[in-house]
Amino acid sequence: MTTPVLRPAPSTEAEDAPVLPASIREAIVRHAVACYPLEACGLIVADTEGNLRMAYPLTNAEASPTRFTLDAREHFGAVCHAESRGWDIAGVFHSHPAGSAVPSATDIAQVHPADWVHFVVGLRPSVQLKAWRLADGTARELRLLESE
Known about the structure:
This protein starts with a strand and ends with a strand. It has 3 helices and 9 strands; from the N terminus they run ββαββαβαββββ. The protein has a single domain (about 20-145), classed as Cytidine Deaminase, domain 2, CATH 3.40.140. By secondary structure, it is α/β, with parallel strands linked by helices. A 7-stranded mixed beta sheet has the order 1-8-7-6-5-3-4, with helices on both faces. A two-stranded parallel sheet has the order 2-9.
């Protein structure tokens, strides 16, 4: 297994800076705290212009503190709901109940579309939320812009 590569947040790449509405941030963090001590997980959707529209908190089918798999039925339901509104899946989120908001080697090894944003909630030592782009065995932190 190769060692994952973590890259710092870019300083100027506006296209890679997702704008996270406060309501979506709150939903992600609330789900992470509610699922503690297990990993929380869910999907993020965006409209056709790339604006993040909604977080779908889903059940972790693995019921594990160190791994997650989206519940298949809930995943399908979220996709159907999003598509009925003309939205697309734009990313995934999950938590690290005993750690920081940095992707693990397992996270980096998972196969997801390269254009997805991966939001990771770290619950220790304090709650933090970071955004990442995972591709080709690397994790690149994205500047995260927040809006009301």
